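Bench log, entry 3. Co-assembly request; chain sequences pasted below exactly as received.
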Amino acid sequence: MTLKTKLGATTALVLAGTTVFSAANAQEMANDMTIVSWGGAYQNSQQKAYVEPYLEMNEGVTAVWDESSAEAVAKLRAMNEAGNVTWDVVDVVASDAIRLCDEGLAMEIDFNEMLADGDDGSTAEEDFGDLLVSDCFIPQIVYSTTVGYRTDMVGDTAPTDICALFDLDTYPGMRSLERRPINNMEWALLCDGVAKEDVYDVLETEEGQDQAFAKLDTIKDNVVWWTAGADTPQLLADGEVIMGSTYNGRLFSAIEEQDQPIGMLWDAQVFDLDGWIIPTGLSEERLARALDFVRFATDTQRLADQSKYISYGPARASSAPLVGQHAELGIEMAQHMPTDPANATNTFLYNYEWWADYRDDLDAKFQAWLAQ
Amino acid sequence: MSNATTGPDNLTGVTPDTGLKVGQSDETGPVLAADGTSLKSSLNRALRKQKMRALLLIAPLLFFILVTFIYPIGEMLFRSVENQIVGETLPRTVVELADWDADVTDVPGAPVFSALTKDLMVAVEEKNHTRLGSRLNYELSGVSSLFRKSGRGVDDFGEVYTDQFVALDPAWEDPATFIDIFAGERWLTANAAYDGEGPRPRFRLAPGVDDVLPETARMYADFARVVQVEDDDNPAEEEPWNAVYLALYEELSAGAVIPADFPQAALLNQAQAAVATFDTEDLRAQFVEIDEDWADREVWRIIQGYSAPYTAGYFLNAVDLQQTPDGVAWRPENQQIYITLFIRTMIMSTAITLACIMLGYPVAWLMANLPARQANLLMILVLLPFWTSLLVRTSAWKVMLQREGVINDLFVWIGIVADDNRLALINNATGTIIAMTHILLPFMILPLYSVMKTIPVSYTRAAKSLGATNWTAFWRVYFPQSVPGIGAGSILVFILAIGYYITPEIVGGTKGVFISNRIAYHISSSLNWGLAAALGAILLVIVLALYWAYDRIVGIDNVKLGG
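Structure output for the full assembly:
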């Protein structure tokens, strides 16, 4: 195929020195792919940072977006049962990736083999490090769930630590928290005197769970429970709540792009990951295309590029030095990354394995607690 | 036709239908048609043709509904009892575990762990073990990671035996030895002829081998299948798993009799003589080393309890019950949620229906009685919300109802509420009722309107002219005639309300969400489709029961959607 030789030549020029096409070149690749993502600003950052460049490099290839990431697990399961998987690469959060992997719906990835090496010479596995939380999951960005507050409603002393959430005396008013146990239970225990490294051990016991619920009980009447990431910024902007948890990227756009009187609390931010999975059951051509795309989209430069459009940290260590300015606002993005050393002085790492085990159980208890 | 003096018979003579009656009452025998057959059967034949034609006409529709509606729903509901995954993933373990009594021994014995090793080996290679783990995790927290962790280590289990077999005779390392013993003649030829196109010929055991070494043969067949299907390799070139050696060791030491003409009989006999001196491996200890939960009685009780192909577990869970060793019991109070939600869904749907009647009735009356121009304008206003996205309408209510929202601002401005004590109108049941009443109102107004349109104005006028007050004329004359419209509207609104979940999700907070929100959660988020199906099935039964009750009390013929 002439296209392929051309394509190989172009990439060799564009990415001289990297090993993007070494393996993939030998195979026929499908020309259409369906990429599943979340829509909105996040999908836009992916479009700009690597889908557009990829399509430019690969003439004749078309990419279709499907904004179904929120229901990806259920939809993939249904597609798999129907024997007709129509998605090629799917953007999901890490906990969903673990479930897809457990269900056999996502392909296992040989990271060093299938992904590009880091620009600094490290192998993919070294470069991603601890963020490889599942055999099927290719991390893309690190985001965090953290707390934003109304600068004009908190009085003279702006909150500096997470326990302000539970401090109704100093900061009276409503708070918004996510309507699920994850993060809330951990924060409750942290603010009830449990050491960070003991949180999950404590939460594993019946007493520990009661302790967390008791702590949450103290603010239960002052909480608006959200389900969509956009809720808290809206509630803050309307003055409905004085503080609330949400994703750091949402707060960034409320503060920097919309100029709202909102401040941000990095204390005890909970890191989480978002990335790609490749569904099982793709034909060889489609799989070759998906792997080729993912290899390109998760290399050092591409991940660094993405941070020009959204304030989420690149998952590769080698990408961090390359993070530059926001594409439109022109502000330095490094300081807005959850992974920035100044922001990451006290972070909390989400324990995926633990939540995979206890999610069903705690969710039932959490919902029952809410309904009481 | 019940009354012979006024029925149609006297006017039109004998019809085919009454003709039969005549024939029966006549003692002389059946009435015959012109061709000599009995009238009844010739009539049936004629009617059958008609029925067939009618059926053919609706066949495409019927087929469509069956395929796209009844079948998927049936299949979804079937999941609420289906539980084959345990028996299919752990076939040997389930059999061994059947005799285990949790009250007698804490943890099952060695045969169960040996069976688990073999089952898990196959499951890991087929990537089924984590699926089973998530299934059982619904019943007991921690099983998910238990299976995930164990899957990583299980391929080393039994290595002790592999090493000793190989030490005894290097032939045991050779895949050909096993092929010689286990592979069937026909498969061997087919496999040798395989040229890489299409699926590999399915592995077949040699006849008779499963009489001599049944367990090993089964294990080897599993191994060969997995190698072919999962890895797309040739079993004749692959060294068997440790689990195959484990099975062989067990059967040889249990005294399997090797016939003299059995393939590799010499090698097998030599091994059988040696196995008594083999070092053994405590598989149970191995499992416990990976995760001490394997020594937990609860884990085994769950596996045993859910080993049947069908389970009532999801339904029990859906009504806050659980299976315990002492029978069915309530779940701990801090986990009871579904009955509350079912009751809440019913109560709130009723409230929404009543609110729709209260608000919709006057509007429908106005529409039915105003001159056409104004009535049309009003109709457009009623239909307008249909042209707006559901999400937009719901989100608009957020702006209206929140603490700093339009309605609260208005109340504060008028002075009804204090500024620091604004009303909580959203993120609770009030919010859900307000927003859903608004969204479902047209479904009440339209049937009401179409019924009211047919009520002649003259009836009310006649009542008034006979001395009725306005109220009596309305209540005794007009209202009873509009009841069919109320019935139709109520059924529509109530059934739609019961299944709603987007609006409650957005404005319902914690006290205003419905059972459908939990169903959606289990379908799309927790992936517990069995529980979702059970909840859905219960909801379906409740709706059908209400429909039945409605039919008994009001009469379904009394419902009118128009004219």
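Residues 1-11, 19-23 of chain B have pLDDT under 50 and may be disordered. Residues 321 and 330 of chain B are 4 Å apart (CA to CA).
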